[in-house]
Design brief:
By secondary structure, the protein is an alpha/beta fold. It is 33% helix and 25% strand. It is built from seven helices and eleven strands. It has a five-stranded parallel β-sheet, sandwiched between helices. The protein has a four-stranded mixed β-sheet with strand order 10-2-1-11. Helix 5 links the parallel strand 7 and strand 8. The longest helix is centred in the first third of the chain and has 18 residues. It is globular and about 55 Å long. The protein starts with a helix and ends with a strand.
């Protein structure tokens, strides 16, 4: 079984995944912090294979022995669109991989294929995969889309939860779990100017 601690160490030492010293980002929420960019992990790399494996193992541990009925593994675009299919291939029980698409910087909806599949199979359980949880805003929109499409039970699995609580998921009553739960300083713009990265003259990369 792959170690999550080893995987965590591989993430923070991989090229371009974590902002280097002296650089930080503005997130879609307007908050500031060092970015964790899972899109920087090449699909054909050992680290991506490790991400697939530890995610499948985490799902196995969380839901072992549960009767999930018809179930779906749903990406939270763009971060996990690449991940759902290989992970589903490793998870026992025939979970169906589906994707979401962006409709705004903070929201996603089901793709046309996903919407058609939901209508046809009427899933009992949907697990939304998110790479990084900051407030849970985008994942919450994926949960809302799955609920609207008729899913009876929708939960979220984050690869890395970077704040103590994902308040947007809490606010909609969504159950969520996180493989790596490690706080990273995530500050409002004012806090960052007063005592955070901006106050230290770290380069700020604004949200596109």
């Amino acid at each position: 079984m792959k170690s999550l601690e080893v995987f965590r160490n591989h993430i923070v030492t991989a090229p371009n995944v974590v902002d280097p010293e002296g650089v930080h980002h503005e997130f879609v929420s307007g908050m500031h912090g060092r970015k964790l960019d899972f899109d920087a992990i090449p699909t054909d790399s050992p680290l991506f294979d490790e991400w697939v494996t530890v995610t499948a193992q985490a799902i196995g541990r969380l839901y072992d022995g549960q009767a999930l009925g018809n179930h779906v593994l749903l990406s939270v675009t763009n971060g996990t669109n690449r991940l759902v299919r290989p992970v589903a291939g490793l998870v026992k029980g025939g979970i169906v991989p589906l994707q979401t698409k962006k409709v705004s910087p903070k929201a996603v909806e089901l793709t046309a294929v996903a919407a058609e599949t939901f209508a046809a199979m009427e899933p009992d359980f949907v697990l939304a995969l998110e790479d990084v949880g900051t407030k849970g805003t985008t994942a919450a929109s994926a949960v809302a889309a799955a609920r609207k499409a008729g899913a009876l039970r929708v939960e979220v699995l984050n690869t890395w939860q970077r704040r103590p609580e994902l308040e947007e998921l809490v606010g909609i009553g969504a159950v969520y779990n996180s493989m790596i739960h490690e706080d990273m300083p995530t500050l409002t713009a004012a806090e960052c100017q007063a005592s955070g990265y901006c106050s230290q003259d770290w380069e700020l990369i604004e949200h596109a």
